[in-house]
Protein 1
Amino acid sequence: MLSARASLLGAVVIGSAAAFSPAFPSGLRTSLSSRISPATSSFLPASTRRYTPPSLVTMAAKRGQITVEDVLANPKWPDEWPFSESDFKRMDETDDEIFYDTPRLVYHIDEGAVAALTEYYAKTIKPKSDILDICSSWVSHYPKDFTERMGRRAGLGMNGAELKENKQLTEFTVQNLNINSKMPYEDNSFDVVTCVVSVDYLIKPLEVFKEVQRVLRRGGVFILSQSNRCFATKAIQIWLNTNDLEHVFIIGSYFHYAGGFKPPKAVDISPGKPKEGDSNPLSSMFGMSMGDPLFIIQAEKA
């Protein structure tokens, strides 16, 4: 297994513009090529939930190349929305309600990544904040004391049974944002909006980001967390054709084109990232994190 993995990673062309998927919009590909040295994830089976090699970002960092934090430091956005309708097609175009009908009371990232996200929320979300969790489920990964320290905590998701199990919410709404992106909240209702490993399922991201901007108060923040796991049949096509660093850029572009946000920022909060002098042989040889990677992409309402 290790030799096969090593062979795949060894075949990756780091630093080549040819590494970009041909399906990536040309405007963004041009903008990215001067900033990112990616490797396509298309050699992995589309059916696997972990479709992006977990070591790509850490490999790049280890080689002194671009990091997650660098991706949105000085982006060169195309003048116009660069995506096409086909970029948001999915392998499974049947009703989302069918796919999400069965409750899934499981974590969609590993425990290390969950702990890192919870810690990030604890450090960055101010007390008494009113929070909206979109694409919500049976758990929002907020710190336990948020039930006492925070204000309103609304959830908007696809499965009512899952949302009923979420003890961190004060209220919830069942709604499919891919059908109706209009959120059932007044303007300027929330201080924080969160979205956990779900932006890759949105087929109308621009409309959703505009709605998030509307319901946020001035100075409020939209915090998206993203890993490399997904239900591949429901993920948008462009997501499956791009890698971790490109995903960060894509999410950043959603903020930019939605308007009304300050420039987005990205941070790598992956647990177990290789450190200088790491004695773990896998980390030393391949720059591999031993758990799920986790990246934060966020922006404040202007």
Protein 2
Amino acid sequence: MLAMHHQIVALSILLLGLAPNLFASGFSLDVTSSSSKTHKLAAADTSERTSRIAIVGAGAVGSYYGGRIWESVRCSNSTDVLFHLRNEHYAHCVENGITVTSIDGNFVISSDELLAYSTTEDMAKSVKDEDDDSHAFDWVIVALKSSSLDAVPELIKPLTSPETRVLVIMNGLIEDDLTEMMREEQGLECKAVYGGMALICSNRLSPGVIDHSYAGKLVVGVAYSADADDDGYCKWVESDKKAIMDLFEPVTPVPFEFEDNLLRGRWWKNCWNLPFNGISVAMGGITTDRIVGDPSLRKLAYKVMDETIATANADLAKHGFPEEDYLPEDTREKMMVFTDTMGAYKPSTMLDLHARKPMEVKYLFKTALDRATKLGVPVPHLETLVSQIEAFQRHYKLY
């Protein structure tokens, strides 16, 4: 069982002026996949143990960041990057590999080089013949949508050990529920849990084909540390920071930043997600340029951002953070300026609505609203948006 001495908060980021976390077409979980083909992993060096990195949920976001990590260690004999895929995405990639077109340089993982698995059990079995399997996977990187959160603990359990570090790149206020699920999952242990926010426009155009069209920054903070001896919120030790910095330091195409206050970072990110994902869906699925270009919708976006900032700072105060950690007033303008230059972007929840796929309503919208209610912060505009979004979800059964 995951041993945790303090309650965790936000997996997330501090946006330094910047882009939203834009999961375009994300990875929707299916744990009942077909069996995987057999792969030959890198031979362990006699002087250095082979490192293992598992990418769980290699969709639009997982394939991009996992692919960039693979690219950085491609010539290494001491690191393997394994990809968990599903259904037609898995079947296509086994035969054809993964192709990524990117504003920061295209790359291809050929079928001969791709270590693809349709189940995490098969991923775990592939490394069991090593002499030392006490922590067969050094890193497990989860890139699922929050609508699949319930399945994460069971999915990653075969890959984890007391020395494994887990990075979860996911939208929404997921931390309380995720850590509770991990505690309850018998046999699941890890060294640390990190929260990642991807500031990226990345779409899966077709099975095995990913297009990265805008931004790309990844900001990560520690959600849980087995080595932290303080029961307070957002606690971590220097070795946790060093581990994640070492992982991404060679991944030069990815702008990377460490976030030391995840609660603040998560709310800062919500200052984009709640108004722009929210208004997009409430309007039946419109692009961001139409929101910022319409006077009434632009005004509404500002109102939702004001309510989000008020809730964020109340939450930070409740958890004992000083005022210097609060979200500044200019957050709203930075978010609007960025969106002004984004173009006709299709937010992730809009894509799900149009495709009639499960929407990230609970953790992306409802949890934020519930927290505002508990804190006594009035958020009438956000409440209306969430009501409209939930109505779409019920009408089309997008659960």
